[in-house]
Amino acid sequence: MTFVAKPKVHHPKLPLNEIGLTRRDYEGPVSTLCAGCGHDSVSAAIIAACAELSLPPHRFAKVSGIGCSSKTPSYFLSKSHGFNSVHGRMPSVATGANLANRDLYCIGVSGDGDSASIGLGQFAHIVRRRINMLYIVDNNGTYGLTKGQFSATNDKGSTSKKGAPNLYEPIDLVSMALQIGASFVGRSFSGDKKQLVPLIKAALMHKGFAFLDVISPCVAFNNHNGSTKSYDYVRDHSGSVVVTDYHLPHEEITADYAPGTTEDVQMPDGSTLRLSKLDDSFDPHDRVSALTYVQRRQAEGEVVTGLLYVDPEASDCHEVMGTVKRPLNEFEAAELCPGNDVLAGINESFR
Amino acid sequence: MTVSYNDFVIRFANVNGSGSASANGMFAKALFRMGVPVATRNIFPSNIQGLPTWFEVRVSEKGYLGRREGVDIMVAMNAETYAEDVASLKPGGFLVYDNSKPLAESLRRSDIHEIGIPLSSLLLPEFSDIKQRGLFKNVTYLGALAALLNIEFEVITGMVATQYKGKDALIQPNINALEIGRRYAEEYLQCPLPLQVKRTDQIGDRIMIDGNTAGALGALYGGATVCAWYPITPSTSVAEAFEKYANQLRIDKDSGERKFAIVQAEDELAAIGIVIGAAWNGARSFTATSGPGISLMSEFLGLAYFAEIPAVIFDVQRSGPSTGMPTRTQQSDLLSAAYASHGDTKHVLLLPATPRECFDFGADALDLADRLQTPVLVMSDLELGMNDNLSAPLTWDDDRQYDRGKVLDAKTLDELPRFGRYLDVDGDGIGYRTYPGTHPEKGAFFTRGTSRDEYAAYTESPEVYERNMERLTRKWETAAQLVPSAEIETSGQRAGILFYGTTALPMAEALDMLGEEGIHLDTIRVRAFPFGKEVYEFIASHDLIFVVEQNRDAQMKMLLTTEGGLDPARLISILYFGGLSISADTIQAQVSEYCTENKLPRLTEVKS
Questions:
Q1: CATH class for the region spanning A23-348
Q2: ipTM of this predicted structure
Q3: Is residue B438 domain-resident?
Q4: What is the chain B residue with the closest CA to A129?
Q5: Does the bond joining B530 to the residue before it have cis omega, within 30 degrees of 0?
Q6: pLDDT tens-digit series, residues A143-159
Q7: Residue B402 maps to a domain
Q8: Which of A109, A222, B183, B218 is least surrounded, with the fewest CB atoms within 10 Å of its CB?
């Protein structure tokens, strides 16, 4: 594998964002994934979202498990620390990282093998714990790094590259996240930048646990005719429910919206999340109907994309636990240690 | 009959869930408050209600705190275990039992003294509620024992008042029950027995505390802000004690907010993942577990070793496996903890022997983990962790600062031409780390196990991999200099005895017993792994070393021979692995037998 450093020189006409940075300041080194891999599009969307939001590129904690998806945090936000941890255990590392410093933006990148198989338990529990983070699954229905075994999100009947059908029911992480209580749930497609970037922006601004399932075709092992996670299949079978755009509090963006009604949702930081409903019957504030809708459409062979559920009033684990506002990793001995006099009193209680 | 004072073993045989623990605990505490050294042992099943449980109190004026074989006084309150309880009494011992029903003829022994107290009959007219009668039965035998053993009655009644403070309605009925027992004993039994308690001053400033509480306080004082854990006997009370004290002592005065976070994780894998994630992000964090948890944490422990992330793990050891005897003590996780994980991994172990050391090592482990950027395991066990042990009081030096190790802040990064996370700048094998979010331009790196160079850039180069592993070996050598050194007592003997953790408890008594046989030994109590050079020097300077431990496979001996390249023939294993704590008699018998079988001269000569 070769490692190619990108030239540091910026094109002079690259636009600057609010904090005077260009998109290049949010990038990482060149990806070592296969050419055309959907995961690289997800990384590009993360870069675009962070740059457009003008977030400081060094104030992120990037965590991942193991697999192709989990290599990607190396390829964006190179000014931030990243942690390529243990297969299926990114949620616990993310939990610890967020407990230690609640001020950092936390992005966890996982895959369908990482989150739906070996890490299904940790996935379920981080949803319950309401860690304030963006949790992205690059979902390609296959084990890429070990060369093409079925993953647990692979649809029943979908075939491998060699033509063997998958015999088992798929796990739908979106339905799970909705059912267990995630306060922000969306699905998108790596090839649909127009939908994905606003979703990532909204997820980053959401306080609480934000889950994005991103169908991301594997060009090497799962982009053939029998696969239900190929570029062609997803393009033909996806049904978008909600178009999202994210508005900074001070700047009114008039984006190129698809026709339909819009709804503004106040975000905790004072900003506004604009939801455009394509389908009048769909309410992204109703967890139960979102779950029903996803399942019904899935039964009809459709992949619902868009923002499926958001609770703008959601709380995160720090609120639940009542931890101090200041990051725990900043406290010094004088603030943490009760001292010897208190200890003398404790001794007395054991006499 | 001659009277002996403050020197006996009393065992209470009860049914678990019957409320006996509080009465039995009061018995031990009363003696402690009379200045008499006591050691308590709770021998209990993995069960909530209905199975046999025993509570043993070693009473020793001489201050022997280890287990001794044989029971002098048996308070037999469990019909189911009558036979084995009666059998465990030493000849001349005393059997205290409820004679509301006569003792079966088959259970009687002619060489013991029977002390029948009609507990059930006495309580029948006093308490109409059957559940209350059961509970007060325990208090009633405590009252009778006070008379039989000459325990100061006011000490016990004072304790009842403290224990039920706030539930005042319970105080008088408890005192009444105590009085019923005492009055019966005084009127109908020969009081006091020739085994008696007498006020003395052998306690000094010591406290009576369990190692898990002490360890949790160590973590609290040591500045842990994140605790992640999964319930497992016998470690659960570490996390529970941390939560209890943190809720008292770590609340921000102005806002009422918590300066700590505790997560009861979904399993041990998540618990250690949270600890590592928090430590990676700069917070002091720890978990508490036991053997099965160490197995589950192993993959993460290896990653933390290679990725060089601090972590503190309290391993309160029990006998294996998962469905084994979770409520019995052993020192059998030593090897699995020392070498936890795949690849070439070694972990720092601290080996406390007293609650005071649980406290000290709990705090020290956080410093060491930060300094060495690696997991540190505090290897306690059920005996130390869950029983109230006599201990030196806990103390804290208010001038002590936390050693956060080599961490670069933004200012230092500014001055640095180029940051290399895994560069060995100081020659001690330890690189400089940065916390996420420190600097807008410098100091960020991508954390992986290996497959990276000194600047944390991706590579799979064999040379770079080997260079990294050799640096980790240098770091291991640094660790050997930083961990607590062994405690050594020498008087020029040709043979020595090496032990660690709770095996130290019966050692003083065992050495006295051996001394009476003309076997004198120099002693070394190992307190950490990697071993300091004093350990190898001690071994080298003796002809023969007895290595005493509580496991079947001689795990400490294996560590010594493997790490030190020692001749195993010179290390003689003294082993006990039955799940109770090792007794002085076991040590004495095995050492003595070895000396006899090998026709060794009694080692009474002192080298000139």
A1: alpha beta
A2: 0.95
A3: yes
A4: B263
A5: yes
A6: 888 888 888 998 888 88
A7: no
A8: B183
